[in-house]
Specification:
Layout lengths: L1 H14 L29 E4 L11 H11 L6 H11 L3 H8 L2 E2 L11 E2 L7 E7 L4 E8 L5 E3 L6 H4 L14 E11 L5 E13 L2 E15 H4 L6 E4 L16 H5 L7 E5 L7 E4 L8 E8 L8 E9 L5 E9 L6 E3 L1 H8 L6 E3 L4 E5 L7 E4 L5 E4 L1 H4 E4 L6 E4 L1 E3 L6 E3 L1 H4 L3 E5 L5 E6 L3
Parallel strand pairs: 5-10, 6-9, 15-24, 16-23
Antiparallel strand pairs: 1-12, 2-9, 3-4, 4-5, 4-8, 6-10, 7-8, 8-9, 11-12, 11-25, 13-26, 14-15, 14-19, 16-24, 17-18, 18-22, 19-20, 21-22, 25-26
Helix pairs in contact: 1-2, 2-3, 3-4
Amino acid sequence: MVALTNLLLTTLLASAGLGAALPPRIGSTVIEAREPELPVSGRKITLPQQKNPRFHKFNGALSVYKTYLKYGAPVPDHLVQAVANHLGISVEEVHNYANTTANARRDQGSATAAPIDQSDSAYITPVSIGTPAQTLNLDFDTGSSDLWVFSNSLPSSQRAGHTIYNPSKSSTAKRVNGASWDISYGDGSSSKGQVYLDKVTIGGLVVSNQAVETAQQVSQSFTAETSIDGLVGLAFGSLNTVRPRQQKTWFENAIGQLDQPLFAADLKYEASGTYDFGFIDPAKHTGDITYVPVNTNPGYWTWTSTGYQVGSSPFVSQSITNIADTGTTLMYVPDSILRAYYGQIRGATNSQSYGGYVFPCSTEAPDFTFGVTDEATITIPGRFINYGPVTDDGETCFGGLQTSSDVGINIFGDVALKAAYVVFKGGDSPSLGWASKQL
C-alpha cells in the first residue's frame, strides 16, 4: 500500500510541472525537427508549441510545492499538509516521498513544445543529441542553467517510460573527466551525474560541444513524468551546477550563430505558442517593445517592475524585483499585492487546506496589470489567473497569483509571460523586452 501511495504522489507531483519550452522555422516556413543542420551564421529559428495529448488532473498546491523545490525553499508545513489532504495520505508519507531519490546504480529551424497538462504548467520540445541523433523531449527553463537528461546511467526502474541519452552510442560524445553536476531541491532530493560534451541540435541549429549532463540520480518527482526526459536551462551560466568548472548554456553557446543575441517567448493561454531565436517577429506583438535592464548577478533574468493595478483600481507604484521564469507555472508576488487582488474577489480566501489562495469558480477574476516602466504596462486577463478547479464539483478554483514570502523571491511565471511577447536579450548588456499582443 505504501508503494502504491508513493507512486500516486510521485505521479501527481510530476504532473504539476516545472517548465516551458521551444519549437521550429526559418524565416516564415515551418520545418520539421529533423531538418538538416543550419549553416553557422546569422540564423533565425522559431520553435512552435503543441498541446500534449496526455492529460493529468492538476492541483494548485502541487504546482506551488514544485516551485518551492525548484528554488530550494523550505516547504511550509501547511503546504505539505495541503498535499497530504489532496491525496488522502499522512504528512509523514509526504515527507518520506520528499526525502526519497532515485539511487545511482546501474541496473533557424524547428521543434515542437507540448504542455504537460490543461493548465499550461509545462511544455516540452524535441531536442537531438549526439551522432547519430538521439531525440529526447526536454523542458525549456529560463529559471535554471543546466542541460541535463535521463541517461543509460540510471537504473532501469528509473528509466521506465523515458527516452534516454546513451553517450556510448554517439560518435561525437566526449566525457569531461572529473566533472560532475548536482542540483539540490528544497525537499532534500537531488538530481546529479556526469558530464559529456556532444552535439546538441534545436530547430536545426547546432552547438557542437555543448555540455550534456547525464543523470545518474534523479528526484522521483521527475521519474514519474514520462513526458519529460530532462531540462534545457536558459538562465545565465553563473547558475550552472557543473563542477569544478561551470559550463555555458545552449543559448550562450549558440548566440554567435544567431542574427541577434536574443530569443523571444510568445507563450499562449490554452493554445500553441512559439519561441523565436535570433529575431523578433513583428506580427506577434502590438505596439513598441519596452526594454528594461536585467540584473544577472543572481544568474536569473531578474528585473524590476514599477508597480501594479487590480482591475480598474488606481495604479500602485511599487518596485517589484522578480525573475522572469518560463519554467514556473504561476506568479509569485508579495502578500500586500495578494491582499489587494483577492480582496476584489468575493469569497476568495487564503486556504491552508488547499495550499494557497482560492476563490469560487463562478466568480470572474479581475485583470492584473504590472508596470514595465512608468509609461509601459502589461495586463494579465483575469481568466489567466484562474488556474482551474481544485475540487471535484468544480466550485472552488486555485489562483494564479500566490505568495512569494516563503519562496524568497518574486517570480513572474507563465501566468504573466503568456500575457506578453517577451524578449530575452543576451550579449554584453542583457535586457528584457515586453510588448503587448493579441490575447
